[in-house]
Design goal:
It is built from 17 helices and 2 strands. Strand 1 and strand 2 form a beta hairpin. The longest helix has 43 residues. Pfam families: DUF6698. InterPro entries: DUF6698.
Length: 413
């Protein structure tokens, strides 16, 4: 009996002996390794959050520049959701029937990817962005909106600060005013400054006339400056033909310089002469070869970051508003400056491009945008080639001939 008791008690003693004695330092090292593993997991999650934040910020920086300058992101998303709800009930619902503005159309294109990139290049900066909107939790959605808004406002502020000093240098170089425009002081710009006043002056008025200058400065009847007048700085050589107001519109040197400063780089503003064709090709190739051979590193610019390959109407409208503000005496960004309202001014420019009255006007708009693209992005006209033009080229022509020959031989057999 005593033997059986000993046999029963033996396993208990054996189970206690299964624990292997280890040193205190070894146990501490294992705990440290486990904590380091947890820390690595947390840091990787933080890195993902940072990348996500940077992603939303970068998309937001594109919205003000190429989608809409004044509409809030929340309003655009709300209108988009409303359109989706109505569309589920009626497949024939259109943007026009709902009274949605054109900015929403562009936002839907960029955020919902309803068109291909060949039709609207604006979609490229937002490619893949729409997938993140699907089934998004409210906290993630709020975080996204916050970062989009921050990116949008930051880009506008950065561009405003950038042009503040640059515009003074450009005006002083081109118009040579005496005294010159102070790059640090905006209080002495606007219509109180002869050079800035000449550029801001409505094209239907003659700034060289002392009566006109006095009337504008006093806001007298007949001289009130509003967004319903095209300012002189939009025109080539800052002068308009009153019998043909479209001639030279949106072709000014200052407008080109401002666009390049924002979308490419301030250093690129030196290359705004010529028409982007002909002899310019030789000079551009020479400069590019020189930069390549010197090993010069080129910083990635805004157009590259947002994958902008063509100049769009809304980007021109954005730069025009920035240039108007840079020439004015207003020191902080606002949508209304006296009698001048930036919101309809921006819309007037967008409508000029996006709402032409007929085919002839549309053709002129297309030619103007093609001119802008050549001026900003170089002499290449590849993006302008139509399918018909490509079909006539020898590579495609040879492919057709070979196919026809093969068909003929097959039929003869």
């Amino acid at each position: 009996m005593s033997q059986s008791v000993e046999d029963v008690s033996q396993p208990a003693e054996s189970s206690q002996s299964l624990a292997v004695a280890t040193s205190e330092s070894a146990r501490q090292r294992r705990k440290i390794a486990a904590l380091e593993e947890k820390l690595q997991v947390l840091e990787s999650g933080h890195a993902v959050k940072v990348r996500e934040t940077n992603y939303y910020m970068s998309k937001g920086r594109a919205i003000r520049r190429i989608v809409t300058l004044f509409d809030t992101i929340e309003d655009l998303i709300f209108k988009n959701d409303r359109r989706c709800d109505l569309g589920d009930e009626d497949d024939n619902v259109t943007l026009e029937s709902q009274g949605l503005n054109s900015s929403l159309m562009w936002f839907i294109v960029t955020v919902r990817s309803v068109c291909n990139s060949g039709t609207l290049p604006l979609i490229l900066p937002f490619h893949g962005f729409t997938r993140r909107l699907q089934n998004m939790e409210y906290d993630d959605y709020s975080h996204m909106l916050k970062k989009l808004r921050q990116g949008a406002d930051a880009s506008r502020g950065d561009d405003t600060s950038k042009l503040k000093n640059l515009i003074a240098d450009w005006v002083n170089h081109e118009l040579k005013p005496n005294p010159p425009v102070d790059p640090e002081d905006k209080h002495h710009r606007g219509f109180g400054n002869d050079a800035c006043g000449r550029l801001l002056c409505p094209t239907e008025l003659d700034w060289t006339n002392p009566t006109v200058r006095a009337g504008i400065r006093d806001c007298a009847d007949g001289y009130v400056v509003t967004e319903m007048s095209w300012p002189a700085f939009l025109y080539k050589k800052y002068s308009a033909d009153q019998d043909n107001l479209e001639k030279g519109l949106f072709k000014s040197t200052l407008l080109l310089q401002a666009f390049k400063a924002i979308f490419t780089s301030p250093s690129s503003t030196k290359d705004v002469t010529g028409e982007g064709d002909g002899a310019n090709v030789i000079e551009n190739n020479r400069r590019a070869k020189k930069d390549f051979n010197s090993g010069k590193r080129v910083k990635t610019h805004v157009a590259q970051i947002i994958k902008m390959r063509k100049v769009t109407p809304r980007s021109i409208a954005y730069v025009s508003c920035q240039l108007q503000f840079a020439l004015s005496s207003v020191t902080s960004w606002r949508s209304v400056d006296g009698d001048f309202d930036y919101v309809p001014f921006w819309q007037n420019i967008v409508d000029f491009f996006e709402q032409p009255p007929g085919r002839a006007a549309q053709q002129k708009v297309d030619q103007l945008l093609a001119w802008w693209t050549r001026k900003i992005f170089g002499t290449s006209r590849r993006v302008e080639l139509t399918d018909g033009a490509k079909a006539k080229m020898s590579v495609n022509a040879l492919a057709r001939q070979r196919a026809q020959l093969d068909d003929t031989m097959f039929d003869s057999e």
